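Tip: read the tokens left to right.
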């Protein structure tokens, strides 16, 4: 089954402490704002040519054991009524610690993997940003605070440009994973959560694989004062957050636990997209049949394994996995189990990461359907407010 993003290829020598240091720095850094660099470079923008977030979406549906069941037709919405604002994870394989603002094959590939299916429900906007690269993740001593601040400043500038030039009062779903979630956590905390006007635009925030925190035993009060955890598919203005594991997280896991002085006061949020109100639910996993390019592709393609030869650009594993939130060993994570015959899930690059590389695609069908249902609720609420 599929793995993507911030992990390094097997044998690269990435250290757990180094990776954790990068992650925590991205999650909490605040320094002086970076200088503006001009208008946003958009990876995905409605109407743009060769848009990786608007692609063919037909999928061959497979049983847990890989038997072909049917073909599922899908395509981007012609007149989507809301927008999605997507911030991608660590994918840049530029041989330096800080990415530039060019669109590379890795950015295009991750947009296809994670965001393209959401185009059935929303217009997808995805800014290019000067993220910490895979090189920087492997060599944390080369990463400076100014680089990390520029990553956030790029996304903040893109968000403000989007609101000013393109939003026109539409509801928005935020989508992030890994480094993208660390950046969006800060954007929500500083730009959206304090502003009633901006909170009213928020359909939901899907902040995956990035340790969103809440007050212990509560649905709010950690990262955000007002934006609560989503506990039903008709709740809006809320956040979905989780990190996937298929075994009990080790004591040194990178996800699921609050470290430091807030460990007793706060906890990492887990919301199950397959069962928001609690309990267990079936996951609908979607995987592109295209191979992932570049340095990260070595790990990604190995972890996906051999997919059956199909005529569609996607395969869907229907009901092959089930998920439920767990607090085993003091880690709040989304525990995933395979049904009989399902492709085994691998913890990569090691058990401290859990199923981090599958956080999005293992539940992509659930997330897409959730956006559909939340959009309906949001539009109904907006209509009532106007009336």
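Filled-in amino acids:
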């Amino acid at each position: 089954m599929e793995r993507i993003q911030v992990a390094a290829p097997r044998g690269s020598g990435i250290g757990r402490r180094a990776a954790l240091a990068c992650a925590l720095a991205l999650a909490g850094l605040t320094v002086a704002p970076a200088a503006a660099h001009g208008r946003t470079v958009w990876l995905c923008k409605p109407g743009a040519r060769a848009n990786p977030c608007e692609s063919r979406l037909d999928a061959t549906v497979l049983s847990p054991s890989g038997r072909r069941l049917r073909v599922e037709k899908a395509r981007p919405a012609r007149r989507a009524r809301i927008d999605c604002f997507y911030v991608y994870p660590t994918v840049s394989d530029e041989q330096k610690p800080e990415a530039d603002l060019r669109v590379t094959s890795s950015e295009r590939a991750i947009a296809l993997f994670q965001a393209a299916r959401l185009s059935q429900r929303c217009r997808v906007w995805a800014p290019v940003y000067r993220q910490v690269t895979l090189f920087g993740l492997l060599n944390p001593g080369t990463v400076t605070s100014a680089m990390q601040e520029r990553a956030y400043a790029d996304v903040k500038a893109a968000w403000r440009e989007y609101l000013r030039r393109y939003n026109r009062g539409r509801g928005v779903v935020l989508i992030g994973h890994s480094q993208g979630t660390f950046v969006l956590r800060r954007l929500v905390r500083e730009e959206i959560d304090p502003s009633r006007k901006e909170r009213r635009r928020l359909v939901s925030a899907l902040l995956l694989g990035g340790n969103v925190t809440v007050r212990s035993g509560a649905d709010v009060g950690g990262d955000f004062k007002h934006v609560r955890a989503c506990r039903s598919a008709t709740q809006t203005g809320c956040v979905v957050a989780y990190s996937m594991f298929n075994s009990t997280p080790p004591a040194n896991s990178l996800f699921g636990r609050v470290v430091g002085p807030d460990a007793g006061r706060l906890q990492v949020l887990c919301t199950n997209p397959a069962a928001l109100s609690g309990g267990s639910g079936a996951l609908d996993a979607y995987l592109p049949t295209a191979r992932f390019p570049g340095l990260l592709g070595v790990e990604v393609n190995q972890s996906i394994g051999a997919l059956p030869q199909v005529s569609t650009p996607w395969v869907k594993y229907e009901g092959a996995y089930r998920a439920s939130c767990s607090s085993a060993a003091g880690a709040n994570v989304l525990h995933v189990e395979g049904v009989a015959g399902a492709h085994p899930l691998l913890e990569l690059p090691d058990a401290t990461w859990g199923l981090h590389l599958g956080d999005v695609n293992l539940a992509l069908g659930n997330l897409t359907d959730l956006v559909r249902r939340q959009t309906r609720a949001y539009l109904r609420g907006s209509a009532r407010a106007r009336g």
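The chain has one domain: 16-386. The radius of gyration is 19 Å.
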